[in-house]
Amino acid sequence: MEFTFKRIYRGPLKAVLLDWAGTTMDYGCFAPAVVFMEVFKRKGIEITIEEARARLAQNPKAVLLDVREDSEWEKGHAREAVHLGKGVLERDIEKMFPDPGAELIMYCGGGYRSALTADVARRMGYHNVASLIGGYKALVQAGWPMSA
Q: For the chain, how are helix, strand and coil distributed in percent, rounded to 5?
C-alpha cells in the first residue's frame, strides 16, 4: 500500500495535512518529521523496546544495528550492537549482511535516522528490518546494557 499525504493548508508555523485515509492532521511546524514517522509506523517499520527484546531473545541471529555516526558510537552504544553508520549503510550493508532475510533492528539517537535507514534497507531488498522507537535514548532509559 502506498501512503501519500496532501498539504491542504499552510500558514505561519502550521501545516495541516490530509492523509491517505482522508483524515485531517494538524502537525504544526513539525509536519514533515511527523508525517514521515506516521508513514513508518503504518508500514510496520518501527518497533518498541519490548518488541526488540523479544525479537533478539527469539532469534539468536537477529542483529541490533547502531546507525549513528562514528563519534556517537564511540561515546557509548548497546553492548551487543553492531555499528554501521547511516552515511555508509547503502554502500556496506550487503557486505556486512549478505542475507536479505537477516533480522536487523536499527537504532539511532532518537529514532528518526534509523526509521529512514530501515526504509532504505527495505527498498534494497532487506525484508526483516525494523527501527527502534526512541533509539539510543530509549535504550538508556530502559536500562539496556551499554558499552563505551
A: 40, 25, 35
- The predicted pLDDT at position 43 comes to 58
Domain of residue 27, residue span? 6-43
- Is there a contact between 34 and 28 (Cβ–Cβ < 8 Å)? no
Tell me the mean pLDDT in the region 88-100.
95
What are residue 86's phi and psi, to 5 degrees? -55, -35
- The answer to whether position 1 is within a domain reads no
Q: Do 19 and 90 sit in the same domain of this protein?
A: no
What's the one-letter identity of residue 115? A
pLDDT digits (tens, 9 = 90+) for 30-49: 445 454 555 555 556 899 99
Number of domains comprising the chain: 2
H helices within 6-128, ranges in order? Answer: 31-43, 49-58, 70-75, 89-96, 112-123
> Do residues 29 and 98 share a domain?
no
Helix or strand (DSSP H, E) at 106: strand 104-107
Q: At what angle do helices 112-123 and 89-96 cross, to 10 degrees?
A: 60
- Report field, pTM of the whole predicted structure over 0.85: no
Do 102 and 114 fall within a single domain?
A: yes
